[in-house]
Amino acid sequence: MTRAVVVDDSHFMRTVISDILEEGGIEVVAQAGDGEEGVRAVVEHDPDVVTMDVEMPSMDGIEAVEEIMATNPTPVLMLSAHTEDGAEATFEALEKGAVDFLAKPGGEVSTEISAHGDALVEKVRSATRADPESVEEVDDPAGTVDTDHGYVENPTLVVGASTGGPRVVERVLSSLPLEADLRVLVVQHMPDGFTGRFAERLDRRSEYDVCEATNNLRIGGGEAVVAKGDYHMEVAGFGNGRLRLRLQQEEAIHGVRPAIDVTMETAAEKIDGPLTGVVLTGMGSDGAAGIEAIKQAGGATLAQDEDTSSVFGIPARAIETGCVDSVRPADEMAKAILDTIRDNG
Residues with catalytic annotation? Predict the structure, then answer.
């Protein structure tokens, strides 16, 4: 049976979360009221997974994640307030090694979390499959890519990721030189309210101008867009080196919205220039059909390898299609992308 430690400064929330997990067949071996207690509980009980509140007295969730990763690496699922401050703190926790997060309904401590019990149990089970040590931190990822080459005109890159993805997406985009002049579409499984802040973080960390997608947005070379949470992002048109995007809220695919497949399949249909599709770490099979579509359209396809994937689900399913050109570790993905758009073939 999966064993969990629940860390939250609210006794009420600890009880609610523990009850939900126990009803879902997950054994809660310990509860903790702050980060320090949580770290000690992880050392004592060696659980399969930890649920971690972000804002707590004494030691907060970010500090606790950092300490857990240093002393007893364990998959950590952050429970975050659905606010701008909560989003920023969540991304900091992901940087420190947390593998995924779930936004608290309503943004604060609320009984509404009971109504999201299935999602919580699913997220916890997904987190247990993650390898918290899969991706090592790098100090200057942008400096590791050889840019002494010319590139083809009007290339487009579509990147899809889920569990464990934010760190890897940041690493990849921060390593892409502006001179490559890519049009970059990022689909990261993430709720509305977090994708905008994710786009801001990518904008600060890369040479590209990055924003959250809006309906009918047009982007050109040197620009990147993050799919908006709770919306599928389609490529609606391509001309004069610019993409036109459309947002829609049709049924979730593979249980997610935005879905990687929607963006990749419409990109393969609409774009007649150089196209590269990349699938990164994550749970599930979203992206496999999209990779097939890009390959059939004559595009290049890449997948992250198992050793550096927090969860080797999405890349594995794509590889199984036989349509992936190359499987690469996270720290080589930017170079592999650039290799697909060299003007020397």
Answer: 162, 189, 286
